[in-house]
Design brief:
With 367 residues, this protein is an alpha/beta fold. The chain is built from 15 helices and twelve strands. Helix 10 packs across helix 11 (263-287). The protein is globular and about 55 Å long.
Length: 367
């Protein structure tokens, strides 16, 4: 079964073809799924790929209805579209990617795999907001969590990299750091807590998203500063984070600014690492301890300064960085100091492999 994995992001449509043994057979990075001409570009790419038997799509938000991967039909697509308000930066891209590829590959099964699903079973204490009972009974006001495909893969890969019998329970804190960023506390392969919540806005400082802010600040902006809900949404989702602090959403620009001692860049990195270190410690508390710390995602994989500064804050938990190992080399390696109580790993983000695993399970059950 040759499998096409579709990962629709804000700036590109990534296509990966995997053979039955997970070998990468072909790939293409295309314009964003809602760009002009993308269907023609997909058609050209698929023609080059050859036979495709099934397609797996990364979908950011599954809400309360989808806690497992599912075959896509018109009803499923309509339900996913109704969740757009909960993930306004990503859900439209996921749906546009689904539509573009479905238009070209209409005769093969399409399976939606959800970033929220990995966190669907977190304990009620971690999932529940302390809101009025009437609100919670009327609306699905809970912490969903995101980046679950990446967290699931990274935590499973950490078991493989451990190289010996893993502790029982095996407690991993996974750090997916990219344009969007979140952490997960994973115990024996199951998520027990995460930093994102009802929407992907909660938690860490990100490229353009603020991360967690005092709800009272939002109310003040609306009631006293006169900002509309739309203006606040735009500000928190698209104009905050590294962009709001340093003028660039790209961590590479921020780090270059730090090298030049630019005050805004220095502050941006300080704020980013402050939130990251404290949140890792919180995830360790949720897991009842930490055996392994994992960094993944674009920033997690390519910014050794960010990793080192975060790890240096966590010495009290048993984390220690090996400067040489952290400084360079291929992903999927250990970057913690030898003998440290907590082992630290750098793992390449491979949502495509997690999607492939889930798609094969769905197709196997269907057969």
């Amino acid at each position: 079964m040759r499998l096409l994995v579709v990962n629709a992001g804000s700036s590109s449509l990534k296509l990966r073809v995997l053979e039955p043994d997970d070998r990468l057979a072909a790939s293409a990075n295309l314009p964003p799924p809602d760009a002009d001409g993308v269907v023609a570009a997909v058609q050209d790419a698929v023609r080059e790929f050859g036979r495709i038997d099934v397609v797996g799509h990364r979908v950011v938000h599954g809400g309360v209805d989808f806690i497992d991967p599912v075959l896509v039909d018109p009803g499923v697509r309509a339900t996913l579209a109704a969740l757009t308000d909960l993930a306004p930066l990503h859900q439209p891209k996921s749906l546009a990617g689904l539509d573009a590829v479905s238009a070209v590959l209409a005769d093969v099964p399409h399976v939606a795999c959800f970033d929220t699903a990995f966190h669907a079973g977190i304990p009620a204490a971690a999932a529940t907001y302390a809101l009025p009972a009437a609100w919670r009974s009327r609306w699905p006001l809970r912490r969903f969590g995101f980046h679950g495909l990446s967290h699931a893969y990274a935590s499973r890969r950490a078991v493989e990299l451990w190289g010996a019998a893993v502790p029982t329970p095996f407690r991993v804190v996974t750090c997916h750091l990219g344009a969007g960023a979140s952490l997960a506390a994973v115990v024996d392969g199951r998520s027990v807590d995460t930093t994102m919540g009802f929407t992907p806005l909660e938690g860490l400082v990100m490229a353009t998203r603020s991360g967690s802010v005092d709800p009272g600040l939002v109310l003040w902006l609306q009631t006293h500063a006169g900002l509309s809900a739309a203006a606040v949404t735009e500000g928190l989702d698209r104009e905050s984070g590294l962009l709001g602090l340093a003028g660039s959403a790209d961590m590479r620009d921020v780090l270059a600014g730090v090298e030049r001692a630019e005050p805004d860049a220095v502050l941006a990195l300080d704020v980013y690492v402050h939130r990251l270190g404290g949140s890792i410690a919180a995830m360790a508390a949720s897991a009842g301890g930490m055996d392994a710390l994992v960094f993944t995602g674009g920033v997690g994989e390519r910014a050794p300064v960010v990793r080192a500064r975060a790890m240096e804050r966590l010495g009290f938990l048993g984390v220690a960085v090996d400067a040489k190992a952290n400084g360079g080399g291929l992903a999927d390696r250990e970057i913690g100091a030898p003998g440290a109580p907590v082992r630290s790993f750098l793992i390449e983000a491979r949502e495509d492999l997690e999607i492939a695993r889930q798609v094969r399970a769905v197709i196997g059950e269907r057969a």
